[in-house]
Amino acid sequence: MENKEIELIVNGxxxxxxxxxxxxxxxxKVGVLEDADGSASVExxxxxxxxxxxxxxxxxxxxxxxxxxAIVKCQYMMSTFCSLEEHGRMGPNRRSVEISKVxxxxxxxxxxxELFPKSQIEVYAIVLQADGGTRISALTAAVAALMDxxxxxxxxxxxxxxxxxGDKLIADLGKMEDNFGQSDVPIxxxxxxxxxxxxxxxxxxxKDELSKxxxxxxxxxxxxxxxxxxxxxxxxxxxxxKRLRIG
Length: 247
Ligand code: ADP
Known about the structure:
Ribosomal Protein S5, domain 2, globular, five-stranded mixed sheet, 29% helix, five-stranded antiparallel sheet, alpha+beta, binds adenosine-5'-diphosphate
């Protein structure tokens, strides 16, 4: 339920001045860590996330290996200093375990795991600063890091969170909208076929509203796809980004 004391939308403008369907500024950079096989940083509005990928490499412990495909391990973490609410100990908690799992499941849909039997691919994402939509920022960084690592993907994954606040359907929820809006729906999908690989929902929406915000997410995906492509081109040139089919 929306907290009526906070007016999230006034005269069609949101708290940070954005229109209903505007994205926050997004910067994606690949190759930001020395030792990882692939890495990326994403600044998405006030979110700052760094992702590192290791592998494919030997699966440890051995009993977890699969003779037919690589297993994907994923760890999403928030730093202790990422926002005002976070204090104290860093490490897995209920929320981070859930987010790690949904990011892993999204990635397993596109990584060509069957090419790397008996191995593991490790994906780490750490949130340095949080401002609503960190799971999508972390997934975006993870996908860019996988591309940087040269791990074959069937298609790229694009994520954005959409939802409802002040009775309006909006794209890319900021922290206040996420925490106090009527509904928050992070979505991730493949670029070519628009197969949905992550969809979670907080709050209430009608069937019609849900269908409208999914279309809105698909439309906004075009912009995010261009940014992914630019990040790869900045490091590897146009030929590689074309080969990765991210544009
Ligand atoms: P997401 O970041 O994917 O939107 P949530 O909907 O759980 O995930 O959280 C919304 C926002 O609330 C986060 O982006 C962050 O700004 C804040 N937040 C939630 N949980 C925490 C936490 N444990 N520590 C710090 N900030 C948090």
